[in-house]
Amino acid sequence: MRWLSRLLSQAVAARRASAAARSNTSLVKGGSHGFASGGRDGSPEVPREWLRKLWVDELKKQKEAARRWGVGSSLEVAGATEEAPSRSYQYEYSGSNPVEAKLAPLLARANLVIARDIEWANIMFAFEQESRYIIMDPLFPQSPVGFIREKSNIIFRQLLRTRRPFVAEITDAMGNEIFKVRRPFWWINSSIYVEVNDKEIGVVHRRWHLWRRIYDLYLGNMQFAVVENPGFWNWTFNLVDEDDKMLAQIDRNWRGLGFELFTDAGQYAIRFGDEGQSHKFAPAEDVEELHVVRQLTLPERAVALALAISLDSDYFSRRGGWGLPFLIATE
């Protein structure tokens, strides 16, 4: 990292300067001017306290830069807590709630991008694989912030296809589980359940309609949002409250003709509203600003992410086979 390289270069420069001073004068002796003798090559050693001071000063500079851009994450060094610009948190939550504390590292962000991996066995041989997704923060697209990994029975995947039951684990970038979604077998209307610490907190129910795509989102037993997509070629799904006011938005992005025709590797942008973000990085320009009537709570955001997984399975997963997949999404 650049700050570590800068820290080491300063330490080397200080060591060389002290060695030169020692060769030119006899004033620098053991313990003088804060440097202690005893280096392997006879030169003075750099004390740990001086290195610690340089390190803390560098972290303070990073904290100031993070505040200017409105981002930050905690980094503890030698008992001091500082911040580095590696996360784009915009949701303030109460640390006393264990469910919110579990969800915050992934969902306390203004926007998320979910991209599905290409399933080559499905493309070439129509062999249904377990779905894999990468979760990214548009502000820092170089590094994933989480993953989604499906776990299902291989026989059910081949026979039931998009109607198969499965459990998907949502983890952070280090592979630590944050929550799960459980999708049982369905025939007419699909449902997907959100579980945190093996306790169900919310559910998404699909409501049958001949052409419209309608979903009801619940937190516990209380409905907090509904999606009424007009269907056909409309790929934007607005989460609105009972007064038809915007809460969040899920948009399936076009990834190019090759991706759309020959794979089911879709990409979804989830916008929770970014009034708290005053700056945007260049990679985040593809995710437009969304004005919402209120911020969704972290459990509600988990239900919204489960909806994105359900949408991908219900409408945008295709069967493959020898490079000639069906062009109509199976339902």
From TrEMBL:
Family: Belongs to the phospholipid scramblase family.
Protein's UniProt name: Phospholipid scramblase
This protein's encoding gene: LOC100282688
TM annotation in the entry: none
Region (Disordered): 23-45
Pfam families listed in its UniProt record: Scramblase (PF03803)
Molecular function terms from GO: phospholipid scramblase activity
Organism: Zea mays (Maize)
This protein's GO CC annotations: plasma membrane
GO biological process: plasma membrane phospholipid scrambling
Ranges of biased composition (kind: Gly residues): 31-41
